[in-house]
Write a structure and sequence with these properties.
It holds the Pfam family Glyco_hydro_43. With 338 residues, the chain is mainly beta. 3% of the residues lie in helices and 40% in strands. The strands form five sheets. It has a four-stranded antiparallel beta sheet with strand order 3-2-1-20.
Length: 338
Amino acid sequence: MSQYTDTGAANQQWQLVQVGTAPAPKYAGYLFTHFTGENTSAGEQVYFALSQANDPTRWRQLNGGRPVLTSTVGTRGVRDPFIIRSPHGDKFYQIATDLRMYGNGNWDQVQRTGSKSIAVWESTDLVNWSAPRLARVSPDTAGNTWAPEAYYDEGLGQYVLFWASKLYSAGDPNHTGTTYNRMMYATTSDFRTFSTAQVWVDKGYSTIDSTLIKHNGTYYRFTKDERSSSQTPCGKFILAEKSTTILNRTYSFVAECLGNNAISQGEGPLVFKSNTDERWYMFIDEYGGRGYVPFTTTDLNTRQWSPVSGYAMPGRPRHGTVLPITQAEYDRLLQRWG
């Protein structure tokens, strides 16, 4: 045994290093970030709502029903807001489609010459947010960059960002040809620099609005089938697939036509696990109708998503995200915008 004199030098001091991700906090409710549509001048901004404690079917609008985050960059309109907590729980990223359809209405044009960037905000506490910035993610061949979402994958040690783009031929710089939406992806660690965009989902027809959740080592992906009802009975409804690896190009089929038992058409699915039960919720946006309608299941590997009865949405929310939050976060949000 050797005994050393205490010199107080750096090589004799313990260095505490954080290993892995922080333990999951106990959640006390949910934050719902969404937009409200293109029918009003302020509808394409980011709105916040809080659940009634841990009940994700009862919601209250925050900030008096006015936007909490407003885009001052790009098109100055944002749709499809998506919020994600960092793996260590110390930062939040709010991202969104850079698109303003109010006063426009030309859906064909915005898929040919639309933004190649997403809007990004950052926060450490959900109430103090950075100014918005644009982050370019799509290639020159893309005509649009729609409904960005992200998933932090521990195996990759990166966020996987994914979105929908129509891709045109490199020989068609003005994007005059005929094409369809594919789901794209890129990886990032900071939502500032991104890997080169790659195709993630290519069905040979338009698919948009993918969302992702992981359970017991399996990734479950939910995507809008953009085909018309005359092309397929499941057109304009949700397709469910699964994979054991996130970037797999060939997810396995689980179910299709999700939502057609309760809504006229659906897009913008969001999915999250209950804070209190072994249960999942999916909100599907009945665009042109009621906005979000909630469904629930106790098994992600199923066609059986039951519509929730007796729910109370915060106004008529459109495509967004539900984020589990702690009691401290809930209280801060309520104090700031309640």
